[in-house]
Amino acid sequence: MFHPRRWSLARQLLAVQTVIISVLMAGGIAGAYLQARRNSLAVAQETVLAVARTVADDPAVLAGLSRPDPTAVLQPIAERIRVDTGTRFVVVMSPAGIRYTHPDPAQIGGRFIGHIEGATATAPVTETFTGTLGRSVRAVVPILDGGQVRGRVGVGILLDTVSRGLRQQFPLLAGAAAVALLLAGAGSWLVGQWMRRQTHDLGPAELARMYEFYDAVLHAVREGLLLLDRQGRLQLANDEARRLLGLDGDPVGRPIGAVGLPEPLALALAAGQPRTDEIHLTGDRVLVVNQAPARWDDVELGTVVTLRDHTELQALTGELDSVRGFAEALRAQAHESANRLHTVVSLIELGRAPQALEFASAEIAAAQQLTDQVVGAVREPVLAALLLGKVTQASERGVELLVAEDADVPEGAVAPRDLVTVVGNLLDNAIDAAVAAPPPRWVRIDAAVLDGELVLRISDSGPGLEDVAQAFRRGWSTKQSAGRGLGLALVGQAVGRNGGTVEVAGSAFTVRLPVPTQ
Description:
This protein is 50% helix and 21% strand. The chain is of the alpha+beta class. It folds into 3 domains: 11-165, PAS domain (Beta-Lactamase); 222-309, 2-Layer Sandwich (Beta-Lactamase); 314-514, Histidine kinase-like ATPase, C-terminal domain (Heat Shock Protein 90). A 5-stranded antiparallel beta sheet has the order 6-5-9-8-7, with helices on both faces. A hairpin with a 2-residue loop joins strand 7 (275-282) and strand 8. The longest helix has 48 residues, at 9-56. The radius of gyration is 54 Å and the shape is rod-shaped. The chain starts with 8 loop residues before the first helix and ends with a strand. Mean pLDDT is 77; it is low at 475-484.
């Protein structure tokens, strides 16, 4: 069945263009015909006026008017001029309008039909009038002799003659219009073919539906989505991508390096290389970045970038690592306690009860002293638990973890999660650095609240950092293994999130975090 609404957009466009072109061509032909008709009438008026003036200025005509029988002299002259000029009539008349000449001799002596009174030397009469021969375009001019009107000359061309000449031009006009219509139709067809390829022969309803779903998906998807062209210019960023990257204004069309992204992320995306689950930090967020080529019909259009927010997951992972380390420390302590318990039991079995009591008391006192020192100095329970676990971990690796006797971390000074991130990562790096250094191997943590700031200082017996400027960038590490280079970046992010600062002097890291006023 004939359903224009089901046509593709290209076909509908071709149909609309064909109708518009046909209407325009029809209007153009009609306008051209009317213009040609007006031009033909104007030419006819100019022709009859020129012939009339020529006849009026002819001395032979003026002389003929003075003869007793003007018709005998003027009729041959008028007919010869009429035939030579192709006009329909040349009538020489008296001042009162009595004909001396006429193509139809029977009309000679009759009165000229038309307006002659207004004909003067400077203002001849030109009009379209119906006379004895039919409707004609005519001109009437006076024949003057010394300023006196001795007669008048009327010259006319029938409208049928004008129309006949116009009809002779019509085939040429119609042919030109047909050629123009053909060329316009061919152009419309080519445009339709191009449009068909661009729209994949889809109809307006299908395109509208696709756009609606496309726009809805882009706004509803929980992952950030970026589209980059082959030149690295941003072509699309959905709502989630703008939120995760903190994009303001309209960044579309700008190079990815000029939209305000952190330098490592901008360089990675601009390279256009495939990436799988790369971790990048942007301000206060940890993002998982994936990048893949975008192709259509084996033509590379650019790259597609997806972004996932792993800020909370990364924080929870850090806490889980701390808990895991604490659990490992507890297992190690349980193993060590079992060894000590076996020692006590063996001493008792050997009848050395005093030595067993002395040994057990010394171990209990040492363990209690460490616990009392940490718990007394660090009133934040989460951080205290972290430190107890790190002490055991460090001991297992041959490193002595020291907590300053005057250390003080009040409860609630800083968000526990951020404290775990900062202290945990700095202690891990310090223990690694101390292990790589010659004995004695140690790590020390100092803490105090000074001038409204919690000041944490973690130092170690390692060689210290050489490239401090690069240390807090994601991916920088002194260790040659995969998955490194995120700890200090997370520290910098957590410190920045709390409005603090980090200072590095050799192997000592000093962190200053504002303490909220009560």
